[in-house]
Design a protein that fits this description.
With 568 residues, the chain is α+β, with helices and mostly antiparallel strands. The chain is built from 11 helices and 17 strands.
């Protein structure tokens, strides 16, 4: 049953760590998915823009082809030039020439807007008849269906729009040659860099912002730059082929700050992962801290239970003795006066013990409730120590232990609660008597240290291990193994005496600690009281309390050497 809380802790810690690990895994995975979605969103927006640009150029070329299809009528071939040229600049700006061929590839009609030499046009017509028509797959071309041929011939790029028609039983091939140079110089700049209004083609303002925040160019199949700036093949750069017209070229789009966007994505990923890691560490640390606090509270609860049992036993024993010897005296069964005196001494001793225990418990109760019960006033720490030792004389006389008191001269005065100082010293003396019963002498020193008043209680007991010197000032802590080596019964006590000493010292602004007694056996318990008032000269006082001697009001006299006064 005692190990059940510890077992729960041992089970809960791995479970908490495992739960945090699972949470971290899914959080990281979600973070990476969100990061991927962000990148995908940027890519989709860039791809949509590239597709829109390619489609817009395609549409403009096809719109011009539709105008040519309406003008180039096989029934009116002799009027082709008159019908087309007057409106060519406005309706078909990129169309350079229109040709009509019969099934034998003979040019029946030809109209051109070019201002170049006649030989260039003848070269084009020859290449068209000899090579281009053969690449058009006319056998599988339905009537009146528009097709395009985009290819290089003799290192020169051509774009042809063509379709077939039947007139009076004869099949005709109609061809429109587009001016590639004009498309690159005029059409591409106009369409690729156009800032659409929110109402053009149903586009939203969001799409318009995407147009402005990107760089666009056109490249061929081999990656050679046709138009626009050179773009690096970054993470967010996309390329889209023209659907039907310039199908050997591609529109390439990259965000203006593609490298910056990639850097931000990477930084955001690192930041989010770092935040997830820190959060997991905080959760684990908080869980461990909660478990440690719970374990500490469990130990304190166990110590409190032991404290209640110890105090109950400590109260019961002196009460039983007082009652037993009082009943014997009351019954008149004590025959001799010596026995009566012995029984009365026992009653007085146990009453003092009971009073001291009750006083400690009451002070500890005030400590637990956090009440400021001290009444500070300017006083002499040496006088308070003298009175405490005088009140403790019966205990030392009974155990045959001598108490030597050394008080330094010119001791500073301080603001103290005299009763609390006496209580702290009595607890230290009681601790020395309980744990060092064979010690012939206990030394109490009062002096100055760094402007503070320091009180030392030195015994010749077995000493305290270094690892226990901090722990013994905690509430309810008792070193139960103090008497195992000498074979005596374990020391009884409540476990609150040293905790009260520490609380009293800290309430006065000082501290309490324990250390070894130099090269000699035993321990030296010390606490300090800060001085906040001016001091007055005082003689060094040295008092010894020996067995069978009482301590009344001591007399003080100035002396250069240490003076010793024995009070009988």
């Amino acid at each position: 049953m005692r190990n059940r809380p510890r077992l729960r802790v041992l089970v809960l810690v791995p479970l908490v760590i495992a739960a945090v690990g699972i949470l971290a895994y899914f959080t990281v995975r979600t973070t990476l998915q969100i990061d991927t979605l962000r990148q995908q969103s940027v890519l989709e927006a860039t791809l949509a823009l590239a597709t829109e640009k390619a489609n817009s150029i395609d549409r403009q070329i096809i719109d011009q082809d539709n105008v040519v299809m309406a003008i180039a009528d096989p029934a009116r071939l002799d009027q082709l030039t008159e019908r087309w040229l007057p409106t060519a600049q406005r309706e078909t700006p990129s169309v350079r020439a229109i040709l009509v061929l019969d099934q034998s590839r003979t040019v029946l009609a030809f109209a051109s807007r070019a201002s170049s030499a006649f030989s260039d046009e003848e070269t084009f017509r020859r290449v068209l008849v000899e090579r281009m028509v053969g690449d058009m797959d006319l056998d599988n071309l339905p009537l009146d269906e528009l097709r395009h041929l985009h290819r290089e011939y003799d290192s020169q790029s051509y774009l042809l729009s063509y379709w077939q028609r039947v007139h009076e039983g004869r099949r005709y091939l109609l061809v429109a040659r587009h001016d590639i140079g004009r498309i690159v110089r005029e059409t591409l700049p106009m369409l690729l860099h156009r800032r659409e209004s929110p109402h053009d083609d149903g586009q939203s303002p969001k799409f318009v912002r995407a147009n402005v925040a990107n760089r666009v160019n056109v490249i061929d199949e081999e990656g050679r730059l046709i138009y626009g700036p050179s773009l690096s093949n970054g993470e967010f750069t996309v390329a889209v082929r023209f659907p039907t017209t310039l199908y050997n070229w591609r529109v390439q789009v990259s965000p203006l700050a593609s490298e910056e966007i990639a850097s931000r994505v990477q930084n955001r990923r690192v930041l989010e992962l770092a935040m997830v890691t820190i959060s997991c560490i905080v959760i684990v640390a908080a869980a461990i801290a909660i478990l440690l606090v719970a374990e500490k509270e469990r130990r304190i609860s166990a110590l409190k239970s032991e404290f209640v049992a110890n105090v109950s036993h400590e109260l019961k024993t002196p009460l039983s003795l007082v009652r037993m010897f009082a009943e014997m005296l009351q019954s008149g069964r004590v025959a001799t006066p010596a026995k009566q005196r012995e029984y009365l001494d026992i009653i007085v001793r146990e009453s003092e013990r009971l009073s001291a225990l009750i006083e400690n418990v009451l002070d500890f109760a005030r400590l637990e409730r956090g009440r400021e019960s001290y009444e500070f006033a300017e006083g002499d720490v040496g006088d308070a120590v003298m009175r405490a030792i005088a009140a403790y004389r019966y205990r030392t006389e009974r155990l045959g232990v001598r108490v030597r008191l050394d008080i330094a001269p010119d001791l500073p005065r301080a603001r103290i609660d005299e009763r609390a100082i006496q209580l702290a010293l009595v607890n230290l003396l009681d601790n020395a008597l309980k744990y060092a019963p064979g010690s012939p002498e206990i030394i109490v020193r009062v002096g100055s240290m760094n402007g503070d008043v320091r009180i030392d209680v030195v015994d010749r007991g077995p000493g305290i291990a270094a690892e226990d010197r901090e722990r013994i000032f905690e509430r309810f802590v008792r070193l139960t193994g103090a008497r195992k080596d000498d074979g005596r019964a374990p020391v009884r006590g409540s476990g609150i005496g040293l905790a009260l000493v520490k609380h009293i010292a800290e309430s006065h602004g000082g501290r309490a600690w324990v250390e070894g007694n130099g090269r000699e056996a035993g321990s030296k318990f010390s606490f300090t009281v800060p001085t906040r008032v001016s001091h007055r000269p005082a003689a060094e006082r040295s008092v010894e309390i020996e067995p069978e001697s009482g301590l009344t009001t001591p007399a003080f006299r100035p002396s250069d050497d240490k003076a010793s006064q024995r009070v009988s």
